[in-house]
Amino acid sequence: MTGKRPTLMDVAEAAGVSRALVSIVMRDAPGASEATRLKVQAAARELGYRPDSRARLLRSSRTRLLGLSFSTAQAFHAEIVDAAYAGATIRGYDIALSAVANGRPEARAVESLLDLGCEALIMISPSLPPEELAGYAARLPVISLLRDDVGDALDSVSSDDHAGIHLAVEHLVSLGHQRIAHVDGGQAVSSAQRRAAFQAEMTSRGLDARVVAGGPTEEDGLRAGRELQQDLPTAVVAFNDRCALGVWESFRAAGLRVPDDVSVLGYDDSQFARLSYVQLSSISQDAPLLARAAVDRAVDRLEGTTSAAHLVRTPHLVVRETTGRVPG
Amino acid sequence: MTGKRPTLMDVAEAAGVSRALVSIVMRDAPGASEATRLKVQAAARELGYRPDSRARLLRSSRTRLLGLSFSTAQAFHAEIVDAAYAGATIRGYDIALSAVANGRPEARAVESLLDLGCEALIMISPSLPPEELAGYAARLPVISLLRDDVGDALDSVSSDDHAGIHLAVEHLVSLGHQRIAHVDGGQAVSSAQRRAAFQAEMTSRGLDARVVAGGPTEEDGLRAGRELQQDLPTAVVAFNDRCALGVWESFRAAGLRVPDDVSVLGYDDSQFARLSYVQLSSISQDAPLLARAAVDRAVDRLEGTTSAAHLVRTPHLVVRETTGRVPG
DNA sequence: GCCAGTCTATAGAACGTTCTACAGGCGAAT
DNA sequence: ATTCGCCTGTAGAACGTTCTATAGACTGGC
């Protein structure tokens, strides 16, 4: 259909120079005069030459490639992918993507990135046990994004769950709430930390720390919301925004008004929390910013001499329309 | 930190055989006895050897790699990625992912896939003009997924919008509706087709084809819903599920009940349409199935002698709880 | 006129695979 | 015994780059 794609050799012949010189020009490396540079570039354009990244990667020790593993099941990972691309471009790196999907476990995703020759790995909310992660980290820098209990062999860039929960409770208390419940994330990553933080925070204020079992999805929130209604608190802190939405929906179905009858606070500040008809108050981890930080961390590990570290950013509160003064 | 990763040569030395033989064993190719096969495999495992995909890809003419471009802005693309992985694995191919993201245009995404040595390209709802797509298609098979007006140089796998809209209108009419409005998708891919199909379908039934301007997001639906309320129809066919959700929300805000006062029908049958508290009636394109079809099509193009074709699948109706009998 | 230094350009060896060609051993058929 | 073929194995050339070493052509300083 097409004939073969042109190689360095083809361009070299067309321009009447050596292969090596073409390579120099294509890489913008020093060692070619301005005149031949132009001549070679013209020939390359003429032939529609594009460097073969496989060959290039193979030969050069540096691949300038960062591996990013994400999950197709988590919509907000897309936001992170987005930000990571932007960050990598700025630092002069490229990103290789690998998804963990149905029937494609995390280990497989990571290994495909390794085979591609990535110099560092960024894993979004990795679910592998710390030992296995450490195994990878022995071979190349690995950055865990949004999960910090990964041992000392890895870097991590995450958000301070304690601070986030503190902000949440502080906000609600300042609105007069005392009976505040937490719907946790079940088995989800970070759920245990947030639950513990909630308990600590409430206890330290002398308040009752009511926790009901939830999960990361709307369904989980819906179920938990129904359970809450048997003894309705005045405010709810949900594990994440999707869960909060489910809780809210269960209230709505029961004729309860948010925030007049009960306040609902989410976590993550995901895209849809900002939708004009949702306007969910939430704790923002600023995922894109964390993604940038992870990329920076990866590059620093590659180019500097720093060792693994755990970077923790403080989240912030975004007040929208689902939290209000305590009723009555 | 790590030492170099082991190569074929290392394994060969460890097992006391030649490089080529190790290659044969690793590829499960014929030409090695069972005994040495075991010996080599043991040595490879011992050293933690993994083949370098860059070198492998470089040397072999076949890369067995399918490029898949998707958009981080479209949540349901994740479902497709998921299905594509599964399909590719079955056919013995691998998938290279490239995202079109903020500041990373489609052309860039495609070119990075090309440089990786993909043998065929699957593009989800490509937004490039047909001429440019044809340019790529001259070099390798390109499958357009969910968009069919891409010219004859490309394959396409899409869903029959006419049939889908027909199902939608048929369903509503069978429930007694006559005053049915369509909220279109604005500039979105497929919007024009669905709008035209709606107009044709309604006109052929002697009904008034009311169309209001919408878009692909909840916000767009919300806006359109408000406009609709100035002269409320008994049923609404929205461009997609997100749009339908916006329309619904605008009704809910106005105290209108769905489906008692007005029916709302979505399109796409996305993940969230199935959520227990949403239960949106919708037209399903069965995206995962289309993804499988696209993968199959790509592989067939590579292995068979078939030429480009446009494959159209018929969508089906999923009745949930947002459509009901005409009021009054 | 000769050496040192700079700039441009080239040849040829890598990188880690796969592929082609071929060699030796062995059994069966001539 | 020779020939044929199959099976197992190897050597060495590819693939398209980048890298190292070096050659030639100038400059300028003595």
Strand order of the largest sheet of chain A: 2-1-3-4-5-11
Number of domain units of chain A: 3
| CATH class placement of the largest domain in chain A | Alpha Beta
User: What is the CATH architecture assignment of the largest domain in chain A?
Assistant: 3-Layer(aba) Sandwich
Oligomer: homodimer
Distance between the termini of chain A: 76 Å
**Helical run tally of chain A:** 12
Low-confidence stretches of chain A: none
> Could you please say which CATH topology of the largest domain in chain A applies here?
Rossmann fold
Share of helix of chain A, binned: 40-55%
Shape, per Cα inertia axes of chain A? elongated
SS class of chain A? alpha/beta
- Kindly report the name of the CATH homologous superfamily of the largest domain in chain A: Response regulator
According to DSSP, the number of beta strands of chain A is: 12
Question: What is the strand content of chain A?
Answer: 15-25%
Average of the residue pLDDT scores of chain A: 94
Helices and strands, with pairings:
Two copies of one chain form a homodimer.
Chain A: H1 8-15, H2 19-26, H3 34-47, H4 53-59, E1 65-71, H5 77-91, E2 94-100, H6 106-115, E3 120-124, H7 130-137, E4 142-145, E5 155-159, H8 161-174, E6 180-183, H9 191-204, E7 210-212, H10 218-228, E8 235-238, H11 241-253, E9 263-268, E10 282-284, H12 287-303, E11 310-313, E12 316-318
Parallel strand pairs in A: 1-2, 1-3, 3-4, 4-5, 5-11, 6-7, 6-8, 8-9, 9-10
Antiparallel strand pairs in A: 10-12
Chain B binds a DNA duplex (30 and 30 nucleotides) through α2 and α4.
Question: Could you walk me through the main structural features you see in this protein, from its secondary elements to its overall organization?
Answer:
The structure is a homodimer of 328-residue chains. The first copy, chain A, is an alpha/beta fold and 328 residues long. Chain A has three domains: 8-51, 434 Repressor (Amino-terminal Domain); 65-158 and 287-313, Rossmann fold (3-Layer(aba) Sandwich), CATH 3.40.50; 161-285, Rossmann fold (3-Layer(aba) Sandwich), CATH 3.40.50. Chain A has twelve helices and twelve strands. Chain A has helices at 8-15, 19-26, 34-47, 53-59, 77-91, 106-115, 130-137, 161-174, 191-204, 218-228, 241-253, 287-303; strands spanning 65-71, 94-100, 120-124, 142-145, 155-159, 180-183, 210-212, 235-238, 263-268, 282-284, 310-313, 316-318. In chain A, the strands form two sheets. In chain A, strands 2-1-3-4-5-11 form a six-stranded parallel sheet, sandwiched between helices. Chain A has a six-stranded mixed sheet with strand order 7-6-8-9-10-12, sandwiched between helices. In chain A, helix 9 links the parallel strand 6 and strand 7. In chain A, helix 1 packs across helix 2, helix 8 crosses helix 9 and helix 10 crosses helix 11. The longest helix of chain A is centred in the last third of the chain and has 17 residues, at 287-303. The first copy, chain A, starts with 7 loop residues before the first helix and ends in a 10-residue tail after the last strand. Chains A and B meet through helix 4, helix 5, strand 2, helix 6 and helix 10 of A and helix 4, helix 5, strand 2, helix 6 and helix 10 of B. Chain B binds a DNA duplex (30 and 30 nucleotides) through residues 7-9, 17-21, 23-24, 26-27, 29-33, 36, 51-61.
